[in-house]
């Protein structure tokens, strides 16, 4: 009887030891329960995906922090060409992601490349897209380091115009300071800045019912010579409009 009891006790101890060993083995990898407040698993060496699959009309999972910290961190060691650290895929036609902040006093989000001590190439883009539609309410004020007002100002400053009457009087103008009729079909238009590296285009203003031809040439660094002709090609005074693009 004593021998039987010893055998039973030994068997029970073996089962308990095996269970303890199995429990410890499972705690280090796949197949274990998630434990709160610690690293899961402690070795950090899961080799297969951990999937959480839901079937509802709300959210599959939810992570929140009722303190003053963030809600979730996703980190990885993805090399170029590999999977991204975070991916949201909508298998239907709704939106794939959304971000919301209840504060309007600071940026809602940011894209940061590298660390505070690393040098980031100026060619690194914050994101890419294959969509070409207009983004609602997106205020892209800076283009190539210039604001929208600077771009408009530069475009205006690089295009000068002059409306000149048949008698040489200067009419509508932007950049032109004077004009004069120096002979039959001969005009000089003066500008307030150098136009040496600019191109010129003139058209006859036939509002008065006098058709004609026109040609332009650079006279000096600040003046353009304009010649006008009648329909037969003979020099004749004609009103014209001159555009200078720099």
**Based on CA inertia axes, which overall geometry fits?**
rod-shaped
Regions with little confidence, pLDDT below 50 for 5+ residues: 1-27
Sheet with the most strands, sense and barrel status? 4 strands, antiparallel
Mean pLDDT: 82
Q: What radius of gyration results from the CA coordinates? A: 39 Å
Q: What class would the helix/strand composition place it in? A: alpha+beta
Adjacency order of strands in the biggest sheet: 4-3-10-7
Tally the helices: what do you get? 2
Ends: how far apart? 112 Å
**Oligomeric description of these chains:** single chain
What fraction strand?
15-25%
Number of beta-strand segments: 10
Order of helices and strands: HEEHEEEEEEEE
Helicity range = 10-25%
Protein described:
The protein has a domain of 83 residues. It is rod-shaped and about 100 Å long. With 246 residues, it is of the alpha+beta class. It has two helices and ten strands, in the order αββαββββββββ. Strand 8 and strand 9 form a beta hairpin. The strands form three sheets. The chain has a four-stranded antiparallel β-sheet with strand order 4-3-10-7. A four-stranded antiparallel β-sheet has the order 5-6-9-8, with no helix packed on it. The chain is 14% helix and 22% strand.
């Amino acid at each position: 009887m004593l021998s039987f009891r010893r055998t039973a006790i030994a068997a029970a101890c073996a089962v308990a030891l095996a269970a303890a060993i199995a429990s410890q083995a499972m705690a280090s990898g796949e197949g274990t329960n998630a434990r709160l407040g610690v690293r899961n698993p402690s070795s950090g060496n899961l080799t297969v995906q951990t999937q959480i699959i839901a079937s509802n009309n709300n959210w599959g999972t939810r992570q929140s922090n009722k303190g003053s910290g963030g809600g979730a961190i996703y980190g990885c060691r993805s090399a170029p060409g590999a999977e991204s650290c975070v991916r949201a895929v909508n298998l239907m036609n709704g939106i794939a992601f959304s971000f919301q902040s209840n504060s309007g006093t600071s940026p809602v989000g940011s894209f940061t490349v590298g660390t505070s001590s690393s040098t980031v190439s100026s060619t690194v883009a914050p994101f890419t897209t294959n969509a070409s539609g207009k983004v609602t309410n997106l205020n892209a004020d800076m283009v190539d380091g210039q604001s929208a007002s600077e771009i408009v100002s530069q475009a205006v400053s690089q295009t000068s115009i002059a409306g000149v009457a048949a008698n040489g009087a200067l009419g509508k103008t932007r950049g032109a300071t004077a004009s004069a009729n120096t002979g039959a079909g001969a005009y000089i238009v003066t500008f307030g800045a150098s136009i040496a590296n600019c191109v010129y285009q003139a058209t006859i203003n036939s509002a008065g019912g006098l058709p004609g031809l026109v040609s332009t040439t650079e006279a000096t660094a600040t003046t353009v010579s304009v010649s006008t002709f009648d329909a037969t090609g003979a020099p004749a005074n004609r009103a014209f409009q001159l555009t200078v693009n720099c």
